[in-house]
Amino acid sequence: MPGKTTIKDIARILKISSSTVSRALCDSYDVNPETREKVLKLAKELNYKRNFGAAGLAGGATHNIGIVLPYITVHYFSMVITGIQEIAFSQGYKIVLYVTNDSPQLEKDVLADLNVQNLDGLLVCVCTGSDSRSYFEQIMEQGTPIVFFGRVLADIEASKVQQDSYNGAFKAVEHLIRRGYKKIAHVGGPTHHLFTQKRLLGYVDALKKHGMEVNPEWIVQSGFSQENGEADMEALWAAKTRPDAVFAVSDRKAIGAMTTLKRHGVHIGKDFGVIGFTNDPMSTIVTPTLSTLAEPAYEIGKQSCELLLRHIAHKNNFQAREIVLSGELIVRESTDRGTGA
């Protein structure tokens, strides 16, 4: 049985030093891109496998990545995790999940108990009402890189990967306007989240662009659950002047709004438009099916992990970056007025 391919084997074939091969395999910034490509190509052809145990002993690396997030049962987060796993596993990293149940106190407890010596880096989606900035800053000061995704802290110097909430909201509201809805409301999320602020701004700016009324009575903000959506829609239904459409910060809230509208005997689509944001699988199961702005959750996971691995490889030579990914408008029955528009 032939022996395993080593770094020395690759170096000998390519006539370069073993240290150059090692740096190329670690995606080091000081390796010529053409050389790196040759090394990676040959390593794949020879089925080279890195000895992570030895690498960890030599350089202090654990090849573990921590993920801190509010939920694992929500479709968005399961897709993000899938994207993270694909990149992490392909590079020989394992992932360790820390779930905060969307609790600020539990988030702080998790971070306080975190043994960063067992992690090479951290991927974080903060909880609602997070006040853990000092914890995150301390972790980064200790040399552990952090990349935030989805729900991020606005006032912290760190890399972030997010969906384009502003333009997604603008596109969703403009779709309602083009379908002929005149009195468009918004059921939003908690006011302190950056992405909920951007979706609210996108909603307002779309109305202003088309010369439509921005009625404060038609803007209701609360949590992200379906129950929150039901309650918010009840508040809108009790308004002095009722809207004829609603843009929801998430699909779950949109489905809650639809539940309330059905309870009031409203014909959704023809008489009242509803559009969400996420493209949760539930949006294709409910009746009528829900129009939405699809979030690139899987791609957010992949790019977050890729960015974190770059931070890990270049701890002292990599500046914080912000990546914003566009979503796709998906038109379904909940905004179908039967006019062919």
From TrEMBL:
Organism: Sinomicrobium weinanense
Protein name (Swiss-Prot/TrEMBL): LacI family DNA-binding transcriptional regulator
CDD domains in the record: HTH_LacI (cd01392), PBP1_LacI_sugar_binding-like (cd06267)
SMART domains: HTH_LACI
Keyword Magnesium among record annotations: no
Gene Ontology terms for molecular function: DNA-binding transcription factor activity; transcription cis-regulatory region binding
Classification via InterPro entries: HTH_LacI (IPR000843), LacI/GalR-like_sensor (IPR046335), Lambda_DNA-bd_dom_sf (IPR010982), Peripla_BP_I (IPR028082)
Origin superkingdom: Bacteria
Keywords noted in UniProt: DNA-binding, Transcription, Transcription regulation
A Pfam family it matches: Peripla_BP_3
